[in-house]
From TrEMBL:
SUPFAM superfamilies, per database record: Translational machinery components
Keyword Ubl conjugation carried by entry: no
Descriptive protein name: Small ribosomal subunit protein uS11
Pfam families: Ribosomal_S11
Gene Ontology molecular function, alphabetical: rRNA binding; structural constituent of ribosome
């Protein structure tokens, strides 16, 4: 009984000149995602994907390297302008945006989407060292 092998085709994403960039910057890592206007992912990268480990992942240099990798793929696909949505308190926020601009993708708008608690959850108890 021969089993058929499934061949999966790569999903084709329509790349326009305009798009969106999402920079998620936590205390541990930074993730940059470039999408078209519909929200379909064109390219993504992170500090961990670029080979940084441990505390080196949350540095401006790691964010710069990840943003350059992500922007190169999207620029080759045809993306030219992006709106940047930044989320999180990490260190590499500004350097990621600056690198996107230096790689030839024009940043038209920067929007901060960092969630702020309206006195929601009770904070964890104070650390005793």
């Amino acid at each position: 009984m021969a089993q058929k092998s499934k061949t999966s085709r790569k999903r084709v994403v329509k790349v326009e000149a305009n798009g969106m960039a999402f920079v998620h910057s936590s205390f541990n890592n930074i993730i940059i995602t470039l999408t078209n206007t519909d929200g379909q992912v064109v390219s993504w990268s992170s500090a961990g994907k670029m080979g940084f480990k441990g505390s080196k992942k949350n540095t401006p240099y790691a964010a710069q390297v990840a943003a350059a990798d992500c922007a190169k793929i999207a620029r080759d696909a045809g993306m030219r302008k992006v709106k940047v949505y930044v989320k999180g308190p990490g260190a590499g926020r500004e350097s990621a945006i600056r690198t996107l601009h230096n790689e030839g993708i024009v940043v038209t708008e920067i929007i901060d989407k960092t969630p702020l608690p309206h006195n929601g959850c009770r904070p964890p108890k104070r650390r005793r060292v």
